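Long-time lurker, first post.

We've been arguing in lab meeting about whether zinc ion would sit comfortably in this protein at all. Half the group thinks yes, half thinks no, and nobody has a model to point at. So I'm putting the question to the forum: if I give you the sequence and the SMILES, can you give me back a predicted structure of the complex? Inputs are below. Any interpretation is welcome too.
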Amino acid sequence: MTELPGRRLLLVHAHPDDESINNGATMAKYAAEGAHVTLVTCTLGEEGEVIPDELAHLAPDREDLLGPHRIGELTAAMKELGVTDHRFLGGPGRFRDSGMMGAEQNDRPGSFWSADLDEAAAHLVAVVREVRPQVLVTYDPHGGYGHPDHIKAHRVAMRAAELAAEPAFRRDLGDPYAIAKIYWNRAPRTVVTERFHWLASVLGRTPFDVAAAVDDVPGVVDDERITAEIDGRPYAERKTAAMRAHVTQVAVADTLPVFALSNRLAQPLFDIEYYELVRGEPGSAYEKDLFEGVSA
Ligand SMILES: [Zn+2]
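Top reply:
Settle the argument with this. Predicted structure of the protein with zinc ion, as tokens:
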């Protein structure tokens, strides 16, 4: 068996940028602490809207070169977070961005949404059996906010965790391996609400005119559902830099922890990241470390 660091974290995301927005501080922290951090991104985000006018030519209805461009953005973001193991599910471009729910791109051949679940999951099983992560992080069943690729990423991650542990499944993909703990990305409603109150008071000092709403934040739930938080404040600058690296997708205010996506609606940037444990045993009643209770 190849030598792997004692703590191994796998994150499964839909598009380049989702990892930095949701888990940037968590990823930077564990990478800095010497854990092996693996990011699997399921699509290239080809259907995203482009923020800077000078890059508008990359859009899918023009040159359709956003996918390759976003590989570069993701690479730059991972450099900021100190993460060296980042991969695309099945290789770059294997599954295409499905567009927003209801778009005609949803069912286009090659779209991630239309992919066979077990076939897509098998690509991830190979990664799980190679890296043998004790901890998996992905979205909730609603994909955080209902985007088809986020819902599909959730399904693929959960299915792959199941299949990777199945002794009879595809031994050509490696030895069976059971992931000890699975978390979904979350945001506690009271914290998010407070942060939006703060945002309203500083909005005039940001480049944005209008704020998003609490429920625009992916994964918002009642506080009781949260079982773990990662205090990423020492890594806030890295997270911010990683988000900025996704130039076509994210605009971050210069001096305040505030950002917007292509809809230009301001959102608070979180340097404490929240999770709900959905598989495995918690190490304590409210965890401050995703590896609590895990043996190397
Ligand atoms: Zn996304």
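For your lab meeting: Residues 14-15, 18, 147, 150 surround zinc ion (CB under 6 Å). The longest strand covers residues 181-188. Whichever side wins, do check it experimentally.
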